[in-house]
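can u do me a favor
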């Protein structure tokens, strides 16, 4: 599964594009392939999705909303990824930072998010805030 931010959606045409978190090319998404109500497709929301090859390139299917919505709280209850003394694993830290950045500034590009996230993770690691 991939994670990405919906960067555009034309409700009159029923399609848009998701910018993958990993910085790859934008992925086409069509309302008939997503398994969600069209009203959930708002620019800036973060989705988990599968990628398949469509007629004109990568296509998102099986979307599931994972990003913060409006003032929804960030999830902190993934105890399986927690370590002793309240530390987070590096992957959980990166996931939380990504959610916070997307919530704070939906206009950030995937490249900007990755750069900020990696610097914050390195900083947290240097201070012993995340598990090595």
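np, heres the sequence
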């Amino acid at each position: 599964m991939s994670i990405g931010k919906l960067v555009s959606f034309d409700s009159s045409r029923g399609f848009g594009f998701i910018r993958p978190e990993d910085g790859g090319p934008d992925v086409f998404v069509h309302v008939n392939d997503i398994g969600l109500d069209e009203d959930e497709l708002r620019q800036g929301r973060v989705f988990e999705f599968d990628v398949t090859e469509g007629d004109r390139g990568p296509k998102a299917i099986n979307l599931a909303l994972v990003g913060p919505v409006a003032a929804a709280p960030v999830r902190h209850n993934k105890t399986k990824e927690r370590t002793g003394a309240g530390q987070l694993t590096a992957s959980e830290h990166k996931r939380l930072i990504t959610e916070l950045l997307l919530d704070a500034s939906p206009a950030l590009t995937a490249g900007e998010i990755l750069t900020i996230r990696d610097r914050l993770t390195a900083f947290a690691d240097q201070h012993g805030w995340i598990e090595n």
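Residues 79-126 form one domain. hope that helps!!
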